Amino acid sequence: MKKIYSIGGGKGGSGKSFIAASLGALFAREGSRVVLVDLDLGASNLHTFLNLKNPPRGLDEFIDKKIAHLEDVALATSVQNLYLISSARCSLEVANLFYAQKKKLISAIENLPFDYVLLDLGPGTHFNTLDFFLTASEGVFVATPEPTAIENTFRFIKSIYLRKLKQSLKEADIWYLCRDEIVAMSRNGLTSPIDFINILVKKDIEQGKIFEDLLNGLKLRLVMNKVRGQIRENLGRQIVEVCNRHLYPGFDLLETINYDSRVYDAILSKQIFIGKYPYTKTAVALQKAARKLKQEQPIAIGLES
Length: 305
Ligand SMILES: Nc1ncnc2c1ncn2[C@@H]1O[C@H](COP(=O)(O)OP(=O)(O)OP(=O)(O)O)[C@@H](O)[C@H]1O
Ligand SMILES: [Mg+2]
Prior knowledge:
Distance between the termini: 38 Å
Radius of gyration: 19 Å
CATH superfamily of the domain at 3-136 and 260-293: P-loop containing nucleotide triphosphate hydrolases
Strand order of the largest sheet: 3-4-2-5-1-6-7-8
Helix content: 40-55%
Shape: globular
Number of helices: 13
Structural class: alpha/beta
Number of strands: 8
Largest sheet: 8 strands, mixed
CATH topology of the domain at 3-136 and 260-293: Rossmann fold
Bound molecules: adenosine-5'-triphosphate, magnesium ion
CATH class of the domain at 3-136 and 260-293: Alpha Beta
Strand content: 15-25%
């Protein structure tokens, strides 16, 4: 069965594209057909991590209605079974897609004929970014260990839950049930998804349960990237705990990845990181993340001291 994962994050430069490219390569190496979709419209750079300097085709052709099937612009990469749908040729204005264009693109992504579809997103909590993130029911949030990391992660995860709830309530035509309370609550700064569900349960217990299940079905995981020194696992665990306590339980720590100057070195030498440095701590952490995402047991391959 096809699986779609989104890779997002509140801040620019946290490593979303690097992690998306690495996970894609790891999935493909195990024989699955994988496509990476660069949804950082207007600031794309996923192709750089895959050593595709000037992608000859891309998402622009689909948005401009030059092709009917998004898969027609999936480019082969140097990794067997790994393809890229690039947005490098998209104009800068495309970052502000119209609603109908966004819906059409999301539907095309859902229908891509691959085993794994990985969505690399731009930073921030713009509605388009949140909607692309929610195209997948499994999302990876990439953060770096800075003092603002908790705040940024908290804001992003909260936005994801609330966007999902609002959209689904509107689709089910029952937004009116709790609109007034939610609007009043937002004015007072109280917009926890748990409160949201509680209001809904009070109004209509059955619907409340349906929407609770909907949030339970969202699998959100954190990757702490570019970690140096002693911070290690602790910060990631703390962030996940804060989000689970104050937003909605279910957010999980996927992996902690070290700062590694060889990431940049791999780009310079025009190679995919996990291909060039397969036996490093960083590659092992990426491999563990890939296996956990696929719910497989990690295998010990680490050799680096
Ligand atoms: N673990 C790491 N160690 C060292 N450098 C890293 C690591 N992860 C990513 N980088 C470097 O950080 C920079 C930003 O990475 P990347 O482009 O993946 O971030 P991003 O979150 O996709 O950024 P944007 O929001 O602009 O799309 C790149 O130069 C990349 O090589
Ligand atoms: Mg990026």
